[in-house]
Amino acid sequence: MEVETSSSSAESFIDKAVVPGDIVLDLTSMPNQTIKLGAGLRQEHDMLSVVKAGNLKFKKPNKYWVESSQKRYVPSVEDAVLGIVVDTRADNFLVDIKGPTLAFLPVLAFEGGTRRNIPRFEKGTLLYVRIVKANNCMNPELSCTNATGKAAEFGALKEGYMFDTSTGLARMLLSSPTCPVLEALGRKLSFETAVGLNGRVWVNAASVSNVILVSNAIMRSEFLSSVQQKILVEKLLQRLQNDSPA
Amino acid sequence: MEYVSSLTGFRFDGRRPNEMRQIRGEIGVLAKADGSALFEMGNTKVIAAVFGPREVQNKSQQIDNQALVRCEYSMANFSTGDRARKPKGDRNIISYSADHGSKYINTFDASFSGKNLKQIDIFLQVLQADGGTRSACINAATLALADAGIPMRDIVTSCSAGYLCSTPLLDLNYVEDSAGGPDVTVGLLVKMDKMTLLQVIALMPTFFFFCCCICFVLLFV
């Protein structure tokens, strides 16, 4: 049985789909360079191999990473995520962020938080939080303030509707320039969204039908190109106009 | 019985001895599982579901410095020709589970194994059994693990082969499998070109079996 040895030139793999085991770079051919590896890549002696299926990305001058999309989230520092309160302890809230373990949110990690004004979160409260510490052997730690200590929109999200998506769709919604589906919706409707990098999205609008429309548009736009996303939004908006009484 | 036609060289299902059955794979088939895959090799159909990494459910099974990989394998009642009721405690099923589990531990990323709090569950269910179920299970589980985004050093692939009518045959179906010839299943890491599983099941003549037993006894005496 012959096994094809793939060419070790990285150019052939950039922006293409890769699977675990693919060797994307042969380091012996570039002796004195520093290369930065992101998610999904692993160095084995002189070869760079892929460990997660996805698209290989490259940013000049020397950053390589694999963009993949999963249902499960791997916590990393400085990510803004949507968590659901599961339990309350003396020092922490236990929050589920769709990761391997529950995360801890200290009761004092709020703007102007002291022992006297600890917020009361019921089981099931949706929170927009920031990850402060994330190691693979400890539970992640969260905070409801930004790096300077201000609240900056973090905290409990009231009303609205939350749904689960993959991590890839969440990254697409947060990309700049604005994702086409959000731009097309924003031209006709007014709504607010909170996107967590852990694959949770929260939508709120004045009327329930608008919330449903925005949620459906987002959920269906994951694998569409920008033109297809605009067409999808137009179709949904037309249906809304036809259904509502003239 | 003529498993390979002497006239045309074809097998029962019209394949040549070195031809595989048609394969078909689909990922993301289960909404609730972190990763899932449906894999078909000819008529053999297997569905795999992966849950993880998540907290270890049973603390007593926790291993230091390694993720715990659990694998459960079962055949649906309707998967074989007759709707046979095999109880879950069947020894065959338990040994298969131990086999399947051990194959995957070696393919996991070494950096991942530093997470000593994590558990990965692989569930395999055979929906239709027409020979080569072990291979189809390995292939389905690989796809499901990749779908779940669990870091892996390489893809594990598997196929079975046999030897009937003096011809090596690739990818046996149920009729050829139950013909009484040897049956070998190979698990291969594709890009790394390493074998993780080599399993042969064959009928040994009684005389040969006695010789082996005598040798073992003489070794230890």
UniProtKB/TrEMBL annotation, chain A:
Main location: cytoplasm
Subcellular localization, as worded in the UniProt entry: Cytoplasm; Nucleus, Nucleolus
Pfam families: KH_6, Rrp40_N, RRP40_S1
Keywords of the record: Cytoplasm, Exosome, Nucleus, RNA-binding, rRNA processing
K Homology domain ranges (all copies): 160-208
Domain annotation Exosome complex exonuclease Rrp40 N-terminal: ranges: 35-72
PANTHER family with a match to the protein in the record: EXOSOME COMPLEX COMPONENT RRP40 (PTHR21321:SF1), PNAS-3 RELATED (PTHR21321)
GO (cellular component) term, any one: cytoplasmic exosome (RNase complex)
Organism this protein belongs to: Platanthera zijinensis
GO BP terms: CUT catabolic process; exonucleolytic trimming to generate mature 3'-end of 5.8S rRNA from tricistronic rRNA transcript (SSU-rRNA, 5.8S rRNA, LSU-rRNA); nuclear polyadenylation-dependent rRNA catabolic process; poly(A)-dependent snoRNA 3'-end processing; TRAMP-dependent tRNA surveillance pathway; U4 snRNA 3'-end processing
Sequence similarity: Belongs to the RRP40 family.
A GO molecular function held by the record: RNA binding
Name recorded for this polypeptide: Ribosomal RNA-processing protein 40
UniProtKB/TrEMBL annotation, chain B:
GO BP, sorted A to Z: nuclear mRNA surveillance; poly(A)-dependent snoRNA 3'-end processing; rRNA catabolic process; U4 snRNA 3'-end processing
Family: Belongs to the RNase PH family.
Localisation: Cytoplasm; Nucleus, Nucleolus
Residue ranges occupied by any Exoribonuclease phosphorolytic domain in the UniProt entry: 19-151
GO molecular function: RNA binding
Protein name as it appears in the record: Exoribonuclease phosphorolytic domain-containing protein
Pfam family, one: RNase_PH
GO cellular component entries: cytoplasmic exosome (RNase complex); nuclear exosome (RNase complex); nucleolus
